[in-house]
Amino acid sequence: MEQASRSAGTVRPGGRTARVRAAVLEATQDELVEHGFHGLTMDQVAARAGVGKTTVYRRWGSPAGLVTDLMTELADQSSPHADTGSIESDLRVNALAVCEAVNDGRLGATFQAMIAAATCDRQAADALRAFYLRRIEEWAGAVELAVQRGDLPRGTDAMEVIRAVSAPLYYRLVVTREPVTPEVAERSVQRALAAARAGAFIP
């Protein structure tokens, strides 16, 4: 759930195939930010990436294939969960990173476009769900460590704690369109942590 890279265009080892994928995903993110999911076209992505249309159609198949790969790449670029030795500090790192990500001009716009698309397109919804599930599972590790240390009750549902931290932030972003600030992030951490310590996340 923490911030991914601001761009999906990082070139990794692997020669031309890796460079093509990086260019196409970079172009996909640019088009998504500028035109939204429903304005995303294979031909425009190919032109923007400087890649042949045949290559793009053969490898990704559809706009949904492009955004699925983009969300996979963003998840891959995200950092591991924090492990400060304090669950309060770990959750604060998570919340502040979400805050930074949604306020980032490029990354925040990418998430908003995907969230909007997910409300009416099943494949976009699947891609977005897979991204967030990976991040929730990763950050659940911080909660599991806290349970092992005795900082939270045994049986605490780690993934639900992470959802509880970020849910108020995304509610402001998507539903009420209010600013998502560090102060809001801090309050979300304190409320989720108080609930977790009281056993509210034990099934």
TrEMBL record:
Residues 18-78 form the HTH tetR-type domain. InterPro entries: Homeodomain-like_sf (IPR009057), HTH-type_TetR-like_transc_reg (IPR050109), HTH_TetR (IPR001647), Tet_transcr_reg_TetR-rel_C_sf (IPR036271), TetR_C (IPR011075). Residues 41-60 bind DNA. The keyword Signal does not apply. Gene3D superfamilies: Homeodomain-like (1.10.10.60), Tetracycline Repressor, domain 2 (1.10.357.10). Keywords: DNA-binding, Transcription, Transcription regulation. It comes from the Bacteria. Pfam families: TetR_C_11 (PF16859), TetR_N (PF00440). GO terms for molecular function: DNA-binding transcription factor activity; transcription cis-regulatory region binding. This is TetR family transcriptional regulator.
